[in-house]
Amino acid sequence: MTNALGPLRLYAGLAVVFFGLVPAVMVSLLVAGGNTPSAVGYTLIGGIPLVLAAVVLAVRGMTGADQELAARRLYLSMALVAGADVLMLGGNALIRMGSN
After folding, report:
1. What are phi and psi of 19, to 5 degrees?
2. Per the confidence metrics, is the pTM higher than 0.85?
3. Suppose 77 and one of 17, 40, 54, 82 were both cysteines; which one would form an S-S bond, judging by CB atoms 3.0 to 4.6 Å apart?
4. Are the beta carbons of 18 and 58 closer than 8 angstroms?
5. DSSP code of 18?
């Protein structure tokens, strides 16, 4: 029987980095540089805590000994990253479309 948790740990870590941390940094740099409407900064108020919670859950899921609990934490971390992306990137797009 194979261990399905190994690839899940890898993909959850990659998801948190590429779909959580990178977009948060990109949107933060856009807001800091003044390249977006100032209202886009409000999406960061909700997005950054979601990404930080996803990072914490991913780290706890990668180091956990109980496989079911680790898998649950990794799934939750990926769900939080998806919610943060919808909030930050979708909010950025909607605010930009509404300001034109």
Report:
1. -105, -5
2. yes
3. 54
4. no
5. I
- Rounded to an integer, what distance in angstroms lies between the CA atom of residue 40 and that of residue 46? 11
For the segment 70-94, what is each residue's pLDDT rounded down to a tens digit?
A: 999 999 999 999 999 999 999 999 9
C-alpha 16/C-alpha 32 separation (Å) is: 23
Cα–Cα nearest to 27, from 16, 17, 38, 13 = 38
What is the per-residue pLDDT for 50?
A: 95
- Euclidean distance between CA atoms 31 and 69, whole angstroms: 37
CA–CA separation, 91 vs 99, rounded Å?
12
Q: How far apart are CA 19 and CA 35, in angstroms?
A: 21
Report d(CA 7, CA 55) in Å as an integer. Answer: 17
